[in-house]
Amino acid sequence: MNLTLKIWRQKDSKSKGQMVDYKVTDxxxxxxxxxxxxxxxxxxxNTGEEPVAFDHDCREGICGMxxxxxxxxxxxxxxxxxxxxxxxxxxxDGDTIYIEPFRAKxxxxxxxxxxxxxxxxxxxxxxxxISVNTSGNTQDANAIPISxxxxxxxxxxxxxIGCGACVASCKNSSAMLFVGAKVSQYALLPQGKIEATxxxxxxxxxxxxxxxxxxxxxxxxxxECPKGISLENIARMNREYLKASF
Amino acid sequence: xxTLDSKIPKGPLKDxxxxxxxxxxxxxxANKRNIDIIVVGTGLxxxxxxxxxxxLGYNVKAFAYQDSPRRAHSIAAQGGINAAKNYQGDGxxxxxxxxxxxxxxxxxSREANVYRLAEVSANxxxxxxxxGVPFARDYGGLLxxxxxxxxxxxxxxxxxGQTGQQLLLGAYSAMNRQIxxxxxxxxxxxxxxDVVKVDGKARGIIARNLITGELERHSxxxxxxxxGGYGNxxxxxxxxxxxxxxxxxxxxxxxxxxxxxxxxxIHPTCIPRSGDYQSKLTLMSESLRNDGRIWVPKKMEDVxxxxxxxxxxxxxxxxxxxxxxxxxxxxxxxxxxxxVASRAAKERCDAGYGVNATGEAVYLDxxxxxERYGREQAKLHHISNPSEKEVYDLGKGIxxxxxxxxxxxxxxxxxENPYETPMMIYPATHYTMGGVWVDYNLMTTVDxxxxxxxxxxxxxxxxxLGASALMQGLADGYFVLPYTIGDYLANDIRTGKIxxxxxxxxxxxxxxxxxxxxxxxxxxxxxxxxxxxxxxxxMWDKVGMARxxxxxxxxxxxxxxxxEDFWKNVKVTGALNEMNPExxxxxxxxxxxxxxxxxxxxxxxxxxxxxxxxxxxxxxxxGLQKGEAKRNDKDFxxxxxxxxxxxxxxxxxxxxxxEFKDIELKQRSYK
Lengths: 246, 671
Fold this sequence. Notes:
The structure holds two protein chains of two kinds.
Chain A (H helix, E strand, L loop, with lengths): L2 E7 L8 E7 L8 H14 L22 E2 L2 E2 L21 E5 L8 E3 L2 E2 L2 H8 L22 H11 L6 H5 L6 H12 L8 H14 L10 H5 L7 H14 L1
Parallel strand pairs in A: 1-5
Antiparallel strand pairs in A: 1-2, 3-4, 3-5, 6-7
Chain B lengths: L15 H8 L5 H4 L3 E5 L3 H13 L2 E5 L17 E2 L11 H11 L6 H20 L25 E2 L5 H18 L3 E4 L2 E9 L2 E9 L5 E5 L2 E4 L20 H8 L4 E2 L4 E7 L22 E5 L2 H8 L13 E2 L1 H5 L9 H13 L11 E4 L1 H14 L7 H27 L8 E10 L2 E2 L12 E3 L17 H21 L13 H20 L5 H15 L3 E2 L1 H21 L11 H25 L8 E2 L17 H4 L1 E6 L8 E6 L14
Parallel strand pairs in B: 1-2, 1-9, 2-5, 9-17, 18-19
Antiparallel strand pairs in B: 3-4, 6-7, 7-8, 10-16, 10-20, 11-15, 12-13, 12-14, 14-15, 20-21
Keywords (chain B): Cell membrane, Electron transport, FAD, Flavoprotein, Membrane, Oxidoreductase, Transport
InterPro entries (chain B): FAD-dep_OxRdtase_2_FAD-bd (IPR003953), FAD/NAD-bd_sf (IPR036188), Fum_R/Succ_DH_flav-like_C_sf (IPR037099), Fum_Rdtase/Succ_DH_flav-like_C (IPR015939), SdhA/FrdA/AprA (IPR030664), Succ_DH/Fum_Rdt_flav_su (IPR011280), Succ_DH/fumarate_Rdtase_cat_sf (IPR027477)
Family (chain B): Belongs to the FAD-dependent oxidoreductase 2 family. FRD/SDH subfamily.
């Protein structure tokens, strides 16, 4: 198929960006979206233009690196996938596709489609860990049984890949699905309980300091999340936060 | 010249690690505060090492080329992690894990390292659970286990199909705790471009800030390389696109020997390539072979009919199908180890029986599993005389519960429903067993320069069993390196800060800068990917699963010619002092163009078949094993460690003879 791409180009964080039109031809429906971008970049290099910078790495939907706003949706029109798993069969010959970086105050653009998500890093450093020595002198792993239900729920929360689609999809640029998922994982496990109060207070404080907005229960984050992280995690974080506040 | 001293402690295998730990030098906690360590790479090995070294009190500087340690490719590992816990009471022990690993590696790994790995494996699980890793649990609340190829016990711990992700996030959380405490200084979006030696010791690195393009000097008392494998030398592989060999290759050029470069695992169950635009390959978990039957059509006319769309695989009756693994290996059938399954698929496709347009695919069929489970379920549900549809629906439910996420992933990529029509699979490059040579302390042939995880060579021999890569990464980082590095650093407590304004740093920074300048100013004809794809094709065709002397000799010449053309005609867009992904790629592909040639040279030297490396000249000619790979213990039971001498073709071979005192070397048979 032949496509028209309208892509956000921005030299660096200080420059002003703009949408630029490109044409790509002979795109196979079997290509992934990023392979289509590779084709475009090869074409740009061959004509002496600078290729479009975009973040990507594992290309199997798990590293969380790829991030693009495609036709007004984080990771594009398919459900439950990252951009690298989005296939061109979702598009039609002759389509015009809008490609933009994830938009949020806390995700400043570095170049073209690449944004800075280190605000997520700082939130994690504010308490997304269990304070255990890494010396290997821990007790036997089966010493504290954990119900299968709790372990499974903790796993579902822990499946978050930190891509930031939740933030990009939220009209308030809220990071509460991301933070809620991490708070939930530890809240559900006996090992994480002792520090629960500090964890949720510190992580929420850092989230606010980074400039993420609040949650107004629209639910766009859950719909756009490539890993199906549930809104229940936000509710659990709120409960943990209330408990910690009194 | 450096000599190969493996520094394996004396004494019985079982006591080596304990005795070693009891007798090495320690660094006083107050002195640890004055010692800096650089860790390059923050996957399972680098992340766990950074966290633990910081916990011990050292000042750690950690470097990741990504925006976060959580993106390291360890995150993509699916199946699980082995540990000799014997929770199942099925007879597992340190010795058995050790034995399975050495045998699975075709007797080309170092006994002492592997035994230590087996010993610390149980600790890893305890550590990760304490960190909040949500491993699968049974209904009694205890940890669940499953079995993996090549072993007879259930010792694999797992977190759904995302074990690597959860273990990495565990190490990442431990890192975050240390970053918050200020004990780890984290350098995201930085790439190490060379190592700096002072008086023969590794004392720092030159890194490029990938956002601003600036070159930075960082000094330390020791440098640890934990940058993973080099499978992307094939261009198409299951590795992340950014996985590269640069750090490992740069230290090789500065004196670290490179061991067994030709040992690369080809994984049998990947989604086949669909066209020339393809950027990478996707692995489907090996666990699928527990229930899937692998076949190709018996008759060539059926192959053609399928390729041309005139027939569907489901149109072929049982006796029109060639279940070639069951035919050739009746004892193990579809569950033969990865190397055997991969070679057999290639053999059928080379003979023309591949079932997709490129001729590089075989079927992995779940029809009989769905039927078998369906009949079993019908009995359990007291349904007498179930209809075919009832059987199918019940069976499908079971298969879905076991492999649903993998089936969904397949359907997303291939756009075919694998419950209705068999999956297509083909082998792909996955994990590299070769890597930087290290001694028992995980130190390279350069003083103060360490290498851990997939980037080193030591534990997996010529083949890697499932669920053992995660184990080695975490063992090295959490439990081995933190001890061994102290023994070395104990001599450094009076050294003080290492200055970076010295001639050694000047020189290496200039080398790095000249190379980057060259790329930007070259204004050649071809893109970096153009060269990478060409290299990948040579590697796959001539240095892939089956190799012969003629092909390998040709490959060496072709890679050399390609490399020369690269340095004349490569085109890199953009500028030096900005984010420039093309420039990053250019440096990495330049390194692959050298490594690829050494890889072929190593394969040419190794005139035996072992692990996944089938040397066509070394085949069993008769008997039960006729046509199978033939290992040669008499002449090749050694580690090939290459010393850099300029051109890869001039590399000098050093041999570390492997001793097997506790294990009898046997032919692997799966007949």
